[in-house]
Amino acid sequence: MAQLFISYRGYCARKGMQLKEVILDGNDVSKAIVEYATNHGITDIVVGASTRNTFIRKFRNPDVPTCLMKMVPDYCTVHVIHKGKAIQVKAAKAPAPFATLPPKQYSQSSIESDGFARSRGDWKKISHQSSPKANRPSVDRLSNFAKATSRERPLSGARTAPLDDFDDYIDFIAPPRPSVTRSSFSDDVDFPMSMELQPMDFADSMELSTSMSMESLSSAGKDVEAEMRRLRLELKQTMEMYNSACKEAIDAKQKAAQMHQMKVEESKKYQELRNAEEEALALVQMEKAKCRAALEAAEAAQRIAELEAQKRLRAEWKAKREAEERRRAADAMSDTDLRYRRYSIDDIEAATHKFDRALKIGEGGYGPVYKAVMDHTNVAIKILRPDASQGRKQFQQEIEVLSCMRHPNMVLLLGACPEYGCLVYEYMDYGSLEDRLCRRGKTLPIPWNIRFRIAADIATGLLFLHQAKPEPLVHRDLKPANILLDHNFVSKISDVGLARLVPQSIAEVTQYRMTSTAGTFCYIDPEYQQTGMLTTKSDIYSLGILLLQIITARSPMGLTHHVESAIERGAFQDILDPTVTDWPVEEAMAFARLALRCAELRKKDRPDLGKEILPELNRLRGLGQEYDASKVSSTSTTCSSSAPYSYGNDDVSSMP
Looking at 322-407, which runs of residues are DSSP E strands? Predict the structure, then answer.
């Protein structure tokens, strides 16, 4: 045992310190040191740091410095030294109590150096004298000694361990060698800072050092090597276990990554299957919708087919009825001798005094017109010229039309001579509207209220033609020269030789194409003139021009433009017939606007005759009648004249 402290003695002798060794007997090093320090009132403990590495400390019990830091009394300060430096310090928290004699006696071995023998009582007395501030450098230099004694085990059956850092401080020992450790004894020796240290003889220390047994050194080296081999084996096993654990962890991580990848792939496949299912469902819904649409279309087509069949049946029934009506009309027209009187050429010559020029009252497009008396009635006889190319056709058509019609606003056909192309009409005292508007023969002007009544009469007669049965009639040559006036200014439409039958089914909807246009230039419907498409709206255009002439008494050429310009300039009153001085301007403006609507270039923009035109004209006629009633007391015959009147379509400029 004494050999273990030889090197420490030399170190202390070199530093001039007095050393005393105390051996503690116990199973727990930390507990034995704490009990000793408590019983002897030790206030400073200096120990070396543990030589265990972190990995070994993890698997074994706590080391001595750690246990001391936790178990020492509050008045004790603990210094943990490593390589000459304090790496950890636990400061005292309370003052030190008075040191008393310990009740328990420990086995002590006094190993005196250089003749400095001390008794047990003297050592205890010295050990209890502590001064924390005295000889602090000595404590620092002894730190390695405390470190070497920090890993102690019970003495019996224990193996030694190396002292790692002791050689750094023992300069006088020549070769470095592992320091020996102790087992089962406490190295926590109290070194009070106030203890008195006496110088030691250096020669005596060298003698003690040289007397160390080489065998004990060899035995200690073997123990160290065995301990190192054991530690290497443990470290190898531990590293193998660690490597195995790391490998298993890596394998587990790889398996987890594979499982995650499989999960992602399965999720992706599931999503793809779900998307495919949704697409399939959407396709099924689309097909169902198509099927429903097809069924609905089929049902609609079936309904349409049924409706078409019904329409076809109605059309066939209507066609049969119209054919029957046409047959009846044709039969009635063929029996013309029952509807008009037949005259011979001798009767015609006798009435006209063999066509005396003095009785000639006009010249038409297809022949002269004579005034005569037949059956004690004034008549007008129209004679067909032999060289008229279209005269015979118009003559026959006029007989067919007029012989079947009776209307107050249509000229009455009294008779005819079919063999020589002679037509006998009732005589109209005031001649044509054109003559009266132009005041030929110096006749008096027509008052505005009479003009409104004439316009209403013309519209009434035209509506009668358009509503004719079995098929409507389009006049095609409506103009002032073909409007005749009787002695009461009742207007009648004449010269229906150009009238054309239009099928009822297309009279208002579909146009009826003519191969050649007919009528007077300024009165012909522009669309009819350009395309040959004929409808009842073609007569509405002619009526519009005629109405404008009634209130202006001007030429039809560009008349619509002049009236529109006057209205826009606010000079409408200037364009009215100046021979009438008491025009009701507001009513005349409404009359003019209606006429302009009738004269629109596109037939679809023109108003309806029965629903719009005639009601408005009847309203204006009523205003005129009210005006007449207010002037009944002062009314006189102002329109009489002895001048002859032209009759019918008798001007030379008329178109055939």
Answer: 341-342, 360-364, 367-374, 377-383
